[in-house]
Amino acid sequence: MANTRLPSAGFSITIRIAVPADASSIGRLTTAAGEAGAIVTALDVVDSDPAHVIVDLTCDTADSNHADQVVDALTALDGVDVRKVSDRTFLLHLGGKIEVSSKVALRTRDELSRAYTPGVARVCQAIAENPADARRLTIKRNTVAVVSDGSAVLGLGNLGPAASLPVMEGKAALFKRFGGVDAWPVVLDTQDTDEIVQIVKAIAPAYGGINLEDIAAPRCFEIEARLREALDIPVFHDDQHGTAICVLAALTNALRVVGKQLSDVRVVVSGAGAAGTAIMKLLLRQGVGDIIAYDRQGALHRGLPDLNPAWQWLAENTNKENYSGDLPGAIRGADVFIGVSAPNLLTGEDIAGMAKDAIVFALANPDPEVDPREARKHAAVVATGRSDQPNQINNVLAFPGVFRGMLDAHAEEFTEEMAIAAARAIADVVGEDKINPTVIVPSVFDSRVAPAVAAAVRAAAQNPATTPPPAADPGPADLPEIAANASATP
Predict the structure, then answer these.
(1) Quick one: pLDDT at residue 230?
(2) What is the pTM of this model?
(3) Could you give the residue numbers annotated as active site?
(4) Is 265 helix (H, G, I), strand (E, B) or coil?
(5) E strands along 271-403, which residues?
(6) What are the structural domains of the chain?
């Protein structure tokens, strides 16, 4: 039976198969794989003899179980001998994805004497006399620590530091590929807030910035706030601010497509963790009409008991009509749905109940909150976090350029002005004359994105007074920093 989920390159497999040497054999393979719900991406002949042909069939599947179903379908064909199945994602990770590469050749004694002893002692003394020179004379100038405790790895939960390492390696690779930033994973075998803060403070002298990653809410708010207070380098929690920047950029263009103003729309956000909280804060700063936050406790509303401080703040500062029902009810009549939560929470019929020209950002990965194929039947603009769907909202649009700009500006902190500038830069890369319902954000491989974001962030860092203000800033008294009030309790 064909799989109903969406195949993805993240579950790509290569199957080595021996088939009879006749004209129909290879066609039977591709047909069987397709009928099993796979997407065939390559077929290579690797060997042959008078009776057999050995082929490598590569295809995308939806998950591990689906991959097994595809293999079983091929094995059931007459005359087919499945010899080996390789998971291409695991093959890519063998030995890790990053390495250290020296910028100095060290081919002669002369080079060794300058790069290391005795010449290096002079550089050490210079930095001791003027610590600011570390940014100029060491890797601090271009290096970021990607720090995680493994407590909220992707959408998989608390997997711990070792299991988080492949994600942090990938993040470091993206930093280099898209921003020219040297980043290194720092995974910590503790989930104690005080210990994490102390460790990051202790390692900070080697880095020009700290990227916090996959740390569970609400602890992530306190960790970020305390590190910002203690360090003279930018501290950026990508799950919060990177996501918020990309969502604001995408929503800016989506609203242009449907001809609505942010101040007039009602937004429902499913998921009030790190990403959802940051998204809502940025939208509130930009003057959104109203927001309903929805999480495990239901719709966050005034009077809801046993809320942590971050959720309590959201309950008091969103949801003007104090809605307390379920998620399908919350989106009824809403203009925008933003999901940063869990898969399959909504149906196409739920989306049909939204306002005319609705916007749906279903960003849970790998499976979104609503099937994008169903959502597109009813919503004007649909986006996901998936690379195999139109309008992929991916943090790689933001964080490489944000850090590139902060490092170039020798910034000492990440600011909201930088976030707004970055979001506008991403949106403007598309261009108002190019946007349409299937193109509201640029491709992650668009070479214009990171330089545009870096330039915007650099300008915001160097001349914050010239950064355009938010559309409607409620002011510090009405919109306190959540991080300052968040609990350290997981």
Answers:
(1) 96
(2) 0.85
(3) 116, 171
(4) coil
(5) 290-295, 298-299, 336-339, 359-362, 381-384
(6) 8-93 (3.30.70.260), 108-138 (no CATH), 140-233 (3.40.50.10380), 241-462 (3.40.50.720)
